[in-house]
Amino acid sequence: MASAFQNRLVGTVVLVAVAVLVLPEILDGEKATFEQQFATIPLRPSVAVAEVSAVAIPAQQNKPTWQIEPDEPSSEAKAKPSAAASDATTKPKISKPAVKPVPKPIKAGWSVRLGSFKNAANVNRLVAKLRQQQFPAYTIPAKPVDGQLTVVFVGPEIDQKRLQRMRADLAKKVDITGKIVPYDPLQL
């Protein structure tokens, strides 16, 4: 026969297993589910295609019934009104829609990225050291905050070759070499 200790141990294990499996279902209640309804978008709109039959079109319908008049008559048109009227009827001028020019990207320049720091005191110390050595230093964000990454840059400079020389001076004077990156004025 089994001992009393074994019976109690088996009973305890069974009760714990039942509690682990059943109690969460009882205490959890109804689970709320959120379903998003998506509208279906047709791939291609259905268009009825009309068949065009070969019908003889009279010659009068081929001619345009409208005339385009120039906005400002030129000096020749003022001098010869009959010639201008005949030109307007024979060769209508159709203006093209105005196309907006695409703005070219602005080359703002280059900067040397020296590093990213979480300690505001280290950022302030490095910026002070760089400015003491006459390097134009700035940070993003402008005010360093402890715990947030602050990136230290030197520049900006339009000429990349001049920035490479500045990078060599940084390596000599401050013992830091950085990476040359494009300057983005919108980051500030």
Notable features of this structure?
alpha+beta; Alpha-Beta Plaits; four-stranded antiparallel beta sheet; 6 helices; 4 strands
What report would you give on this structure?
- The protein has a domain at 110-187: Alpha-Beta Plaits.
- Helix content is 38%, strand content 13%.
- The chain has six helices and four strands.
- A four-stranded antiparallel beta sheet has the order 2-3-1-4.
- The longest helix is centred in the N-terminal third of the chain and has 25 residues, at 4-28.
How would you briefly describe this protein structure?
With 188 residues, the protein is of the alpha+beta class. The chain is built from 6 helices and 4 strands; from the N terminus they run ααααβαββαβ.
How would you describe the shape? flat
Q: What distance separates the N and C termini?
A: 82 Å
The CATH topology of the domain at 110-187 turns out to be Alpha-Beta Plaits
Strand order of the largest sheet: 2-3-1-4
Unreliable runs, pLDDT <50, ≥5 residues? none
Q: Which CATH architecture of the domain at 110-187?
A: 2-Layer Sandwich
By CATH reckoning, the class of the domain at 110-187 would read Alpha Beta
The number of helical runs is 6
Given the helix and strand composition, which structural class is it? alpha+beta
Radius of gyration: 40 Å
Order of helices and strands: HHHHEHEEHE
Tally of strands:
4
Largest sheet: 4 strands, antiparallel
Beta-strand fraction estimate: 5-15%
Q: Which oligomerization state do the chains in this entry correspond to?
A: single chain
The average pLDDT value, as a whole number, equals 76
Relative helix content: 25-40%
